[in-house]
Amino acid sequence: MSVNRFSSRWRLLGAAAVLALLCAVPSGCGSRCPTPAPADASDSAAAAAGAWATVQAVNRAWTVHRSLDSLRPHFHPRFAGIYPGGLRLEGAEALLDSYAEFLGAATVNWYREERPTIQVYGGDMFVVVTYVYDMEYIEGGRTIRTSGHSMYSLVKEGERWLAVGQQFQPLPGRPM
User: Fold this and answer.
1) Cα–Cα distance, 155 to 170 (Å, whole number)
2) pLDDT tens, 33-83?
């Protein structure tokens, strides 16, 4: 048992040493690891709530309202997304075109977001939201049920949260 404790402590000390070494060595841009600014807990909570509300508004716009006009204000013009099958979309208009294509071919019966994790960075200016999704839709006369993971990156511009990036992946063996 003492070997396991020693081994665990060694791994922790080793990881701390590697992190300290990485922060001491200049990066490619000639600077040291940034020291995070202390964030006010209420700012972080407000940022997390605002970003999550934006992600939910995006999902309701395409699943319930089926409205590109409702989607448009939530995406940064320089949005970038990576999707299954190697698809990469650049720009909000390319993303909206893909939503239009999906909405023209499919009808969503239901969509749920579950187990969100929200990480706030840079005070309250950048947020990464990850969650599990579960949905059912009809396309080409077939009912398709799928589940997976989704991740949005959002930046705060003024008082609004804008999605700058997204990636989603169906669970193994599930359709897109």
Assistant:
1) 25
2) 333 444 567 789 999 999 999 999 999 999 999 999 999 999 999 999 999
Tokens of 95: 């993303």
pTM reported for the whole predicted model: 0.74
Measured CA to CA in angstroms, residue 82 lies from 16, 88, 123 at distances of 33, 5, 26
Contact 88, 82 (CB under 8 A): yes
Beta carbons of 153 and 128 less than 8 angstroms apart: yes
Question: What's the token pair of residue 148?
Answer: 């997976």
Q: Which fold has domain 41-170?
A: Nuclear Transport Factor 2; Chain: A, (3.10.450)
Residue 114 is given by DSSP the state: E
Cα(176)–Cα(166) distance, rounded to whole angstroms?
Answer: 15
Bridge partners, residue 107, by sequence: 138
Report d(CA 53, CA 166) in Å as an integer: 16
| Domain positions in the chain | 1-35, 41-170
Cα 75 to Cα 159: distance, rounded to the nearest angstrom = 14
Alpha carbon distance 129, 164 (integer Å): 12
